[in-house]
Design goal:
alpha+beta, 9-stranded antiparallel sheet, 2 helices, 9 strands, disordered N terminus
Amino acid sequence: MYFRTALFWFLICGTTIGVIGQSTPAHSAKNKWLDTEGLYYLDNKQNLNDLWALIITRYGRPVPAKENDPDAPTKPGLHILDQHFKFITYTVTKNQVSFETEKINGRSFRFHGRVHRVTDADFTNLPALYGQLVETNGSTLKIKKVRFGRAVIY
């Protein structure tokens, strides 16, 4: 009986200590995921003078409005001018991003890419998404390599 009680308390205390000791990596993984959340813009050289924005969030909630860009979109999905292509599916890990949008007037998008870290004059280690964007418009497919850069508040 004493052996069972001692074993029970050892397992309880040992499990609790193990969980406490492992909380930091789980927290770090969460932070890395959250690091990729936010507003991205298609590289200026690729957007053909249209505003292409991408919002990625973990739970599909809108992002807060940007102080320096109050007209920027906040709802998750791909935004092209005034059209909002909601995600049908999307997956984000610390290294990869993929999504598929709903159709609007026969037009939809798929993206699969990798998360890279970039540095500009004012910011270091910003996430940028490099990958392949597939646009389907009726029976027409357009495939191109794209870069979405993270929007920042100055």
